[in-house]
Write a structure and sequence with these properties.
Layout (H helix, E strand, L loop, with lengths): L1 H34 L3 H27 L5 H9 L7
């Protein structure tokens, strides 16, 4: 059961990270193409989708992960012994 939960958390973190990465990159490209040189509009066009996907991902994966979508954050918590490896 513990191993099952570990793999579930691992897959959830990977999937959440990939979806967040795809959203940030995609919205950055979209914002740059649609902003026509206006950096304020480009920033807004990147910030809104990123924030929206974070809300969705935290809602979906939060109960499984504790909402760590950055492996570096999870590793830092492990090193500081704020979470257990299991």
């Amino acid at each position: 059961m513990i191993i099952n939960n570990f793999y579930r958390a691992l897959v959830s973190e990977w999937l959440g990270t990939m979806l967040l990465l795809a959203t940030v990159i995609g919205s950055g490209i979209m914002a740059e193409n649609l902003a026509a040189g206006n950096m304020a509009i480009a920033l807004l066009g990147n910030t809104i989708p990123t924030s929206a996907i974070l809300v969705v991902l935290i809602t979906i994966f939060g109960p499984i992960l504790g909402t760590h979508f950055n492996p570096a954050v999870t590793i830092a918590f492990l090193l500081r012994r704020e979470i257990l490896p299991r």
